[in-house]
Amino acid sequence: METMVYKTASSATEIMRKLDQGRKHLRSGNLFSCISTFHDALQAYVNIKSIIEADRIKVAGAFNDFQKQITNSRQFKDLYGTFSFRNNDFSTTLDFVSELIKIKEDEIADILVNEEVNHILRQANLSKEEQNITKVMVSLVERGEQLELREMVAENDALASLVLAYYNDTGISCRTSGDIDKAITEYKKAISISPDDENLYYNVARAYLEKGKKEDAEECIGLAVKINPKFREGLKLQHYIRKWED
């Protein structure tokens, strides 16, 4: 009887597969899944006891390219800000990504138990199932899991409106108090729920103007007018921005 011999994939091959999976998450707009997969790949690499030089060079190059893709993505910048990882310093990157995940999970937990947030989301008026749905939506927004979020929004339009109002109102409150950077972040979270709402882009454009970021403001108001060419307030702001001198 013939014996079948199965080859086990090398550690380097498994890591490359994880990075491919991470890229798919990034293309789909599932940022937290992308970061979590990146974390798992880093952990596997750091814990390798031995690896041939050719594989080490190949994997290191793949890591360096992938972490650039992450930090250059608009979604990552919107949620985490602008910074870069150091090439080939994968132990430090692993520690940083681990902390990033922990901080985000802690932030989500704080939001979900916040009484003021629950009041804004009208949790007292919702059934237990509806409460759970709104909390899952908030969690998906905070994690940047856009693919699952879009599916959930499509199935729960009324509840999505509550979550949208929470982020938009938080953005307005931050802008009123002078925390413009936070306002922009919250407005963009609202956009992740309703990417075809011209009013949300208008809000972001005004916030960018307050920071003196004309190009960003012009880009946002351009998107608003593209969504609704008859958006009068948007057209006025667009005209103002184009005439605005640096």
Features:
mainly alpha; disordered N terminus; 3 domains; 246 residues
Polypeptide structure, described:
It is a single chain. The chain is an all-alpha fold and 246 residues long. The protein has three domains: 94 residues; 76 residues, no CATH class; 51 residues, no CATH class. Helix content is 78%, strand content 0%. It has 13 helices and no strands. The N terminus is likely disordered.
Write a brief caption for the model.
By secondary structure, the chain is an all-alpha fold. It is built from 13 helices and no strands.
What is the secondary structure topology, with strand pairs?
Layout: H1 11-28, H2 31-46, H3 53-72, H4 74-80, H5 90-113, H6 115-120, H7 128-143, H8 146-155, H9 157-177, H10 180-193, H11 198-210, H12 214-227, H13 232-243
Helix pairs in contact: 1-2, 1-3, 2-3, 2-5, 5-7, 7-8, 7-9, 9-10, 10-11, 11-12, 11-13, 12-13
Query: What number is the mean pLDDT?
Result: 90
Strand content: under 5%
Kindly provide the radius of gyration, computed on alpha-carbon positions and rounded to a whole number of angstroms: 22 Å
- Biggest sheet features: none
Helical fraction: over 70%
Number of helices: 13
Residue windows where pLDDT falls under 50 for at least 5 positions: 3-8
Number of strands: 0
Calculate the terminal CA-CA distance, rounded to whole Å. 81 Å
The structural class is mainly alpha
H and E string: HHHHHHHHHHHHH
Q: Shape, please?
A: globular
How many structural units, i.e. domains?
A: 3
